[in-house]
Amino acid sequence: MNFQLIGVNHNSAPVEVRERLAIPEQRLPDAIRTLVQQPGVEEGMVLSTCNRVELLTSSKQGTDVRGFLPTYFGINPESLNSHIYEFRQQDAVRHVFRVASSLDSMVVGEPQILGQVKEAYAIARGLGAVHSALDFLLSRAFAVAKRVRSETAIGSSNVSVSSVAVQLAEKIFGSLKGTTVYMVGAGKMAELAARRLMANGVSAIFFSNRTHERALQLAEAFGGEAVPFERLYETADRADIVLTSTGAAEFLFQRQHGERFLARRRNRPMFFIDISVPRNIDPEVNRLDGMFVYDIDDLQAVAAGNTAERQREAERAEQIVQAEVERFAARLKSLAVVPTILSLQEQCETIRQAEMDRIRGKLGNITPDQEAAIDAMTRGIVNKLLHTPITTLKSSVAEPEAASIHDIIRRIFNLNSGKPTK
Amino acid sequence: MPQLWLYVALSLYGVGLLYAVVSLWGGRPILTRIMLPAVGLGTIFHFVALVEYGMLGPAVAPSFLHQMESLLAFLLMAFFFVVYFRYKTASPGVAVFPVAFLLTVLASAPSSLANSPSPGVSNRWIIIHVGLILVGYSALFFSFFASILYLIQERNLKAKATGGGFWSRLPALATIDDIGYKCLVFGFPFMTLGLIAGSILAEAKQLNLFRDPKILLSILMWAVYMVLLYTRWSAGWRGRRAAYLAAFAFAAAVLAWSVNSGWHRFIAP
């Protein structure tokens, strides 16, 4: 079986190229049908996401679908050549495994890609464009993705600053459910973080801004409460999490504020997220027991740490993929001898049946018991005779002379076609 | 037979001990997977051993001191599972498993000490007195260890450390705090009732309580215990200050336990 995969992804092509090749969902069936009509192509599927467009085909003799994308989209092939990558055989298998396991994604470990591959597979399968070899390949790919996800921590680390903020808050408060957030200042990033915190179950949110109108607007948008900026210090201790993003040139919160908050909160911990530059919170506050201050650099360092951790996990995942590619190749090879085994069994069974009919004519009246005994005996002889050739065929798949063994057995038993003669 | 169950429990606790040791050096997934079933089974065998000894009576049972050690180990394991199912964390295992293992080793060693700690006093009263105090000890142990974990987690968060390993997989600060506090609240009445039961016993035998270091240390531990609870209630003390107090109470408890090799002075064999 020959596999070919061609495509473009976020590494090989800029978005201007990818967007020209993207195939919207409603056009996918048409693209798949056109693909499997290419000469020699037996099965085919198309994966089109915002980060990649890939064609996967299988064929008996080996085909070349490199020209498909430029022809299908009416684009000059020259302009695409440098962006298109191609994988064949084991490399194609490895690539499919890597994509499904989210190792080839822009954000390694992101979970969406597996769903997208599954969807592309379902569409192609529904059209009958995927049925045997690709079916086998894709079902293995899903199993590999599952293995990677369960055996490595590739999907567990977060990368963006707002998710790091949530991750840290959870390390302090366990769950964000029932916690209170105080937003000081406003800005895109702060809003994003607030949204993320709210999505994780924060129960109350306060807004304070030098321009009170802005605080009112935000409070309305988020269903929170606006607090006048002058009352910041009397009210901030109500929050478990304080997020600052003001343009203030000096520290808004200093050590003495922290001490006061702690006393009022009876030492319950407080988490300060300072995403403003210059910083709004004195690092001294972090020295107080139960006060945790993270500035933008700290958050980014944690995010970077997560990426490094992800990298480590990705390396482990690559090893899993490599082992699975080898297993897949071995299983594919063993599949190649299946038609020969079937036709061998079929041919012998035909001979046995013919001989049974002949003996029935010669013996005349025999009891059902006698017939059953003859039937069992002949079946036994055939099975014993076939045992060695079949086991030799099966065990030869891993050996270098597999093809010649295969050929010799076919010749000895006069098996003309690879397919069972039904 | 009960001795055999105790040995089985001990070897299963060995898996827990191994887990505890290996965890501190990065951990092995295989150990993490078999640790819970192993120590769970160990705890069940341990329970069977305790019940069988109880049923067989004083003629066959090991020395009273050994039974106390065994009971304490069992209570610690039981506490571990309560915490595990309530908070979904196996972190306390790192401290509990080695201690439970050690206590079970001591408990299963042969002994020639007397079976009854105090001839002439009803064994039932002594069992109630010791049992209550041991539940209190177990709770105190958990509370103490939780306060250490709290300190480590607090330090991790302040240092903005993102490294891997066992210490980065600790439960959330609030969870650790909750474990520590709940254990404290749970253990206090047991400790108090245990001490009251002890003083009733001593009263019955007309002994001078204040000449026994074990009793003095126990009273000291109880006082610190109360201060711990009070500061928590009134000022919400946690973290460093609470950990110091808990360490002090725990040290007093360990001393009270080990002084006079487990016996009160007036009944020492």
Describe this structure in words.
The complex is a heterodimer of chains A (422) and B (269). Chain A contains 16 helices and ten strands. Chain A is of the alpha/beta class and 422 residues long. In chain A, the strands form two sheets. In chain A, strands 7-6-5-8-9-10 form a six-stranded parallel sheet. A four-stranded antiparallel sheet of chain A has the order 2-3-1-4, sandwiched between helices. In chain A, a hairpin with a 3-residue loop joins strand 2 and strand 3. With 269 residues, chain B is mainly α. In chain B, 75% of the residues lie in helices and 0% in strands. Chain B is built from eight helices and no strands. Chain B has helices spanning 2-23, 29-56, 64-87, 93-108, 123-159, 173-204, 213-235, 239-258. Chain B is flat and about 60 Å long.
What's the total helix number of chain B? 8
N-to-C terminal Cα separation of chain B, in Å?
28 Å
Helix content estimate of chain B:
over 70%
Helix content of chain A: 40-55%
- Describe the global form of chain B: flat
- How much of the residues of chain A is beta strand, in percent? 5-15%
Please compute the radius of gyration of chain B using only Cα atoms.
19 Å
Tally the helices of chain A: 16
Q: Quote the distance from N terminus to C terminus of chain A.
A: 22 Å
* Main sheet: strands, sense, barrel of chain B: none
Oligomeric state of this protein: heterodimer
Average pLDDT, all residues of chain A: 86
Question: How are the strands of the biggest sheet of chain A laid out side by side?
Answer: 7-6-5-8-9-10
Strand portion of chain B, in percent? under 5%
What is the residue-mean pLDDT of chain B, rounded to a whole number?
Answer: 81
- The strand count of chain A comes to 10
Q: Supply the helix-strand structural class of chain B.
A: mainly alpha
SS content category of chain A: alpha/beta
Hey, which two chains have the biggest interface? A-B, 24 and 21 residues
Radius of gyration of chain A: 33 Å
Q: Profile the largest sheet of chain A.
A: 6 strands, parallel
